[in-house]
From TrEMBL:
This is 3-methyl-2-oxobutanoate hydroxymethyltransferase. The gene is panB. Homodecamer; pentamer of dimers. The active site is at 182 (proton acceptor). Its EC number is 2.1.2.11.
Length: 264
């Protein structure tokens, strides 16, 4: 299958064919998602909370993003690879956004994602002018978890919904190629999906978005996170625990390694 490009996501929107994005942070999971036909891999700053043991993505560093972006980009061929700009690497202005965006592209990212609406319009313009395509991220924006007073659905009232739609149009006009909508009422996400020309990608944003994204350890049942918007398509925590228990038991009773695993 052909390499996924931004224009394929735009075609998918125009044809009404939803596409799928998953987070990925390492070689074998990224390869499994490529084999499964996942179109877009997001090296999210969620690597901080899913792999590195932090409790907030505000702890994820630019160096973390470079390391894991490189791992994923080296491991796959077909999916579009998107990497998050870490907290603190773009809020300070367009020059910082471009400097860090360039490094993510050097590490293998094909688009960079940043959180926010009107406030990051200059950053988006500068990145796009530098030849770096941008994915926006609106609704619940995890890097602002403290200002937003926790993980909460955004845009519930009419004013909030209007503001989200305005932000979506603003970042589209600044040049964003796609927009993640996180924790947004389904009706609001549907309206935004209709008013913007670029694809929307939902997480906890209902079925009308042009694409969907989940954190892979959530959808595979490894993290144990069961938010309302998450569906678990596997029970990797159980399977992995069983495998480790079995291994421990067989080592304890000397049934592993057997002759077939041993050298003469
Ligand atoms: O970092 C991440 O995993 C994300 C997705 C939840 C969209 O930004
Ligand atoms: Na993120």
């Amino acid at each position: 299958p052909a390499k996924v490009r931004i224009r394929h996501l735009h075609d998918a929107k125009d044809r009404g064919r939803p596409f799928s994005m998953l987070t990925a942070y390492d070689q074998f999971s990224a390869q499994a998602f490529e084999e499964a036909g996942i179109d877009v891999l997001l090296v999210g700053d969620s690597v901080g909370t899913t792999v590195l043991g932090h409790s907030s993505t505000t702890a994820t560093t630019h160096q973390d993003m470079l390391t894991f972006t490189g791992a994923v980009a080296r491991s796959v061929h077909r999916p579009l690879v998107v990497a998050d700009l870490a907290f603190g690497t773009y809020e300070t202005g367009p020059a910082d956004a471009v400097r860090h965006g360039v490094e993510l592209v050097r590490a293998g990212a094909e688009l960079v994602k940043l959180e926010g609406g009107h406030a990051v319009v200059p950053q988006i313009r500068a990145l796009v002018e530098a030849g770096i395509p941008v994915m926006g991220h609106l609704g619940f924006t995890p890097q602002s978890v403290n200002s937003l007073s926790g993980h909460r659905v955004q845009g519930r009232d009419a004013h909030g919904a209007d503001q989200l739609a305005e932000d979506a149009l603003a970042i589209q006009d600044a040049g964003a190629s796609a927009i993640v909508l996180e924790l947004v009422p389904a009706s609001v996400a549907a309206r935004i999906t209709e008013v913007v020309q670029v694809p929307t990608i939902g997480i906890g944003a209902g079925p009308a978005c042009d694409g969907q994204v989940l954190v892979w350890q959530d959808m595979a049942g490894l993290s144990g996170f069961h938010g309302k918007f998450v569906k678990t398509f596997a029970d990797l925590r159980r399977d992995l625990t069983h495998a480790a228990e079995q291994y421990r038991a067989e080592v304890g009773e000397r049934s592993y390694p057997g002759e077939e695993h041993s050298f003469e």
